[in-house]
């Protein structure tokens, strides 16, 4: 059983001891991180993942409601107050507007409220995730229709249609850089990867060969994945030292390549780079991008013997 990770804010002395003793008596495995203010609590959440926030209702730097409103979507929040039992005068921690409290003589009952709080939050989080996924899938459906319209054979300019499509993908995925790479070569010539069209987010430097004059590397290990219609995902931090130097020039934290294939061979790929986050790509995102790559090939590539994207930057 993993330890319960608690963030405890502005509870010290006897109050802190009451929480620790009650959890220990109930055989909880737990670790406590202390914060003495809202600011320090927020900083702690940026450095570590917690299961529950337990906060004093009185904070030195403002209302506890501010803290709960910020962190409430991230983890269950339990607000407690310090006081004295009116009958025994012993120190207690109590949950406002409930009958749950902790004292030296009664340590267990409040855990029922803690567990209920965690269960309610978990159910609400599942509902939020389900709604988010539904909205995200609806977004992908709408974006796919827009891509199909943009890539319709009636559009006069292939390059413009592709650029508009790539820019739509960049916007939908909130990504730094999207581009097309084509594969050149034959049995008698070395395989070369050529980056052609590219779009970038505002403020992100272009890495088109026209601007950077950097040869795109060819990884033989990608052949197996691309030939099987599988994407390639890379996180910069997980790269081997001899591979990091090239990717460092692109200011890349995470990378996804969706193959563009024809007759069971891959002709190139659509590259997606996030310069901000070591990103994990969801199944729905990859499925959506595979559909777009099929559209790109079907509408503009499969009927041509030569690559549709002429390399004007080499």
UniProtKB/TrEMBL annotation:
Q: Which organism is it from?
A: Dyadobacter subterraneus
Residues covered by the GAF domain: 159-296
Instruction: Give the matching InterPro entries.
Output: GAF (IPR003018), GAF-like_dom_sf (IPR029016)
What name is this protein filed under? GAF domain-containing protein
**One Pfam family named in its UniProt record:** GAF
